[in-house]
Amino acid sequence: MSNDKAPTDSTSNPAAKLWGGRFSEATDAFVERFTASVTFDRRMALEDIQGSLAHAQMLSEIGVLSSDEYHKIADGLKDIAEEIKEGEFPWSVQLEDVHMNIEARLTQRIGATGKKLHTGRSRNDQVATDIRLWLRNRIDLIAAELTRLQKGLVALAEHEADTIMPGFTHLQSAQPVTFGHHLLAWNAMLTRDYERLMDCRKRVNRSPLGAAALAGTSYPINRARTAELLGFDAPTENSLDSVSDRDFAIEFCAFAALLLTHLSRASEELVLWTSSQFDFIDLPDRFCTGSSIMPQKKNPDVPELVRGKTGRVNGHLIALLTLMKSQPLAYNKDNQEDKEPLFDAADTALDCLRAFADMVPALKAKKENMLEAAAKGFSTATDLADYLVRKGVAFRDAHEIVGQSVSFAIEQDKDLAELSLGQLQQFSAEITEDVFEVLTLEGSVAARDHIGGTAPNQVRAACASAREAIAQR
């Protein structure tokens, strides 16, 4: 929270040392700062309070807290939440983390009753609960932005269903496609990303609260009740795994890495298409910047940054995998290192989606330039081969005939469609006047008239199907 007060750097003393009953000296000042996590885990402050409210209610329901004690705790926590929202909360590094900062503040506000809140739980299951609550919230925000991007993408694809452009393999002109068809390829990637995100959410949405330090607790707690109060689908099943599991964070970062990889691929195409060498699209000025020395420049900074940020998110996935690879059960201090990669991966994914969701609907296709580019590079050569096969020529022979025709066209500095019938017939007598119907770009595109094909009517049908699928989420 940008408006939070900076954590204070208090001097330790043995009496004030957290959980210091068995220690004879204060924590070293550097070690205190080195081991503290409050500078970053206070992002989960409201989730921490949310979990504490549910825990306190459950303790009241099973008789561990009296009604009066519960209401004091609940009111105190709600007041602290307001302090945090207003940026008035006095964060302290000496108190190590978000959990102890809030608990200490609660005790300060309501007295000894505040110390009863931690009954039947540990910071181990508390932090695991907080992370899941925080990540569940971010998943829902990301899902909403992903959906917004896909809606804009499908609308643009439908608008450009007839716009012909070159399709590429090896970044060389291969076959003509429609711009709408190309955009739907991006949407297909994002659909898989959405499915992965929702699948991840299922495993995030389990409650570790009540697993305590590692073995559970001797108090007659009701874990199903706290899970219900917090909107989890169910409690986690094994206390050891509950406090040490970070699979869900790794899985989310794997999702984020794939999402950013897909956005990076789209970004690379946007960078290429806005270049003077391609000049396929116009990117609105609000998504670009100028050069400090070259006044003619219009740089596609937004897609370039998305492409660049992909490396960060990929790195976070590797960091979490490496963090967990050698940890014995159950909780270890290593796990304090899980939050910063996870936080940044979620922030970056959300920001990149917002940028794309704003930018994509504003793209303007330069249709004449796309069409001119599609006419180059013999992109209808495959159509000529298919034509010959339909005339009874074996495909391998047709492939050879077309290759010879292309070689001749190159010598003549012409496209296949610009050759005369006589010139084409010197390579095969099966070629007749109707060949020119398949050598046009429009004819080539229209011929791909099947599910998943680039024919304009198939693109429109695919858009309708995609729009319906998005609406059912």
UniProtKB/TrEMBL annotation:
User: From the UniProt record, which GO molecular function terms apply?
Assistant: argininosuccinate lyase activity
Q: Does the keyword Metal-binding apply?
A: no
Q: Which domain of life is it from?
A: Bacteria
Q: State the UniProt keywords alphabetically.
A: Amino-acid biosynthesis, Arginine biosynthesis, Cytoplasm, Lyase
HAMAP family hit by this protein: Arg_succ_lyase (MF_00006)
Q: Which family does it belong to?
A: Belongs to the lyase 1 family. Argininosuccinate lyase subfamily.
State the protein's name: Argininosuccinate lyase
Native organism = Microbulbifer epialgicus
